[in-house]
């Protein structure tokens, strides 16, 4: 072997060695970053893409994989969203959403139970009423196993059509055709009740809630309000920043909420000194979730308000939506939230100072805006608290 040939051979061996070391280095880095399970997931995906002989929908496959990963967490507050669902979720957090305009009961899964219908919505225009039950969505029967998928199928693109099978109060079934549209969320409504008591009803904590509440407080104060009722019934919660901004309008300077993340890092949020001093009662029920029940709990714990209604659900975690590379997203619990005292609401909720239930029928009428104030036992109890303490 001459020197020239030997040199080429040595160079080739060096190149092979470099490639081998590069591959090993890449594998080492991949294992360190992805872990054994992450590499196994990539292996399975590669094997299917290169060896599977059948036809399949790659997008549907990835949706199923990501959904299963989040479902396996066993956390009822964490879920996967397709690209379309994520866009709809973002719109809702901004105070807008595309849908048909219904509020549903998330505890009953034998059908999609309609608790309330939004005024001037596609659902109202189609004659859908609170108390009715959706039995099928786009031809898919609603069962406990298909419930979540059917709820998601109700959402969709603006101006797209949807067929629902609805069971009326008398048990009869009918087909309803609707067209989804963009709806503006009415986050806060307010009015002056007799005896100069201001009523503030907060639908959810989306972007703009705190500003709408501020406007309501200013108007009620200018009209001479002597007391306030903050109605958080059927409020599903929402943005933490909006919740703290709402609390800031009722609490003097001090700690508001303690957040602890997965790594144990803690952060305390504080309110400033400027706030209303008017006597306050907060209304809650079983459907007061997350930010809603936390607001009530903090006002109760600070002796700032009397809480009236029924036991709340008990949610002590905050979630964040994280957009993925393909446009979909995962919505997972990232923080545990505590009252400044260190108490968590997870699994317990809060017990009102004055326990006053509503019948199921009255609850449905309340959600649909059809329950007169005089027949609202919880509201009347709140008024009694304020007037008796005057």
List the helices and strands and how they pair.
Elements: H1 3-51, H2 58-71, E1 79-81, H3 83-93, E2 96-99, E3 102-104, E4 112-117, H4 122-125, E5 133-137, E6 140-141, H5 147-154, E7 161-167, E8 173-179, E9 181-184, E10 188-193, E11 197-202, H6 209-222, E12 227-231, H7 240-247, E13 254-261, E14 266-271, E15 280-284, H8 291-301, E16 306-309, E17 317-323, E18 329-338, E19 354-355, H9 360-367, H10 377-388
Parallel strand pairs: 11-12, 12-15, 15-16, 16-19
Antiparallel strand pairs: 1-18, 2-9, 3-4, 4-5, 5-6, 5-7, 7-8, 10-11, 13-14, 13-18, 17-18
Helix pairs in contact: 6-7, 7-8
Which sheet architecture does the biggest sheet show?
6 strands, antiparallel
Residue-averaged pLDDT, rounded? 87
Strand content: 25-35%
Order of helices and strands: HHEHEEEHEEHEEEEEHEHEEEHEEEEHH
Helix percent reads 25-40%
Total of DSSP H or I helical runs spanning 4+ residues: 10
Distance between the termini: 108 Å
Query: SS-based structural class?
Result: alpha+beta
Poorly predicted regions: 16-27
Radius of gyration: 27 Å
Tell me the total number of β-strands.
Answer: 19
Task: Sum up the overall morphology in one term.
Answer: globular
